[in-house]
Amino acid sequence: MTIDAGLKPEGAPERSLIAGAGTPSGVDAGPKRYSVQRKIAVVARLLRGELLDVVAREPMSLWPS
């Protein structure tokens, strides 16, 4: 076992100075995530026989908050 002392692999790209800086507060960070209740509701719909394509294409804006 060797200790690499934090050396990066040969040919590894440089890390951007802003990488991992996160999104400033108050800015939309992209797609919203499903809550546990929404996930359970989607699985229940699929188990009842609704097509995955129909469930997957339904916009989240139609879901209750």
Identify low-pLDDT runs.
Answer: none
Order of helices and strands: HH
Mean pLDDT: 75
Kindly state the percentage of residues in helix: 25-40%
Question: Structural class, judged by helices and strands?
Answer: mainly alpha
Shape: elongated
Beta content comes to under 5%
Quick synopsis:
Helix content is 28%, strand content 0%.
Written account of the structure:
With 65 residues, the chain is mainly alpha-helical. The chain has a domain of 33 residues. Helix content is 28%, strand content 0%. 0% of the residues are buried. The model has no long low-confidence stretch (mean pLDDT 75).
Q: Can you give keywords for this protein?
A:
single chain, mainly alpha, 65 residues, 0% strand
Furnish the topology, listing elements before pairings.
Blueprint lengths: L35 H12 L4 H6 L8
